[in-house]
Amino acid sequence: MTATATPTVLTARALLLDMDGTLVNSDAVVERIWRRWAGQHGLDGDEVMKVVHGRQGHASMAVLLPDRPVEQNLADNARMLAEETSDTGGVVEIPGARAFLASLRGLPHALVTSADVALSTARMNAAGLPLPEVRVTAESVGASKPDPEGFLKGAAELGVDPADCVVFEDSGAGIAAGRSAGMAVVGVGPRAGDHGPDVAVSDLTQVRVEALRDGTLRLHIG
Q1: C-beta of residue 73 within 8 angstroms of C-beta of residue 62
Q2: Partner of 58 for a Cys bridge, out of 73, 144, 156, 204, CB 3.0 to 4.6 A?
């Protein structure tokens, strides 16, 4: 299906939610830290920003500096995660995120993020959002998005077939991961529409969840 803002209805048994760019707007801090890193390595900041959204930091570094040892990427990633966790300036909810999460209380859903536990907790708290009970973070997986491992693990932890899940994502890497997992994808925000989600929305005010008696979740989008 082509990405569209036309009113659409999707059905699912569970929802898998990315964090940055989907529930939380952390673009300000991501820009600050990654542009500083780009400058330190003689890279063009604009080109770096095209790569980093959605991936774990060390995976982005492997794309940007393919000849650099993995150990250096992991060390840089650990340092940058600590910086990002302590820097929550400008971190706010994506419009509609609080109400959207409230509507999912008691329904099958999980956070599937490339952030680690500390960073995801810090950013959700900074945005005033509750953390879903089921969370798949960087520590939970062996491969970063665009690998589908995180979404497949989220589905497994919820006990739902991947084909019955809908992913909410903002980035190219995340949308590719959802598609590789065999899931429908709702793209959220300005980056999403360029990467082939099933349907795209500007923010979460355009999504309403209806829980049916048979356990199906009906998503009214647009």
Answers
A1: yes
A2: 73
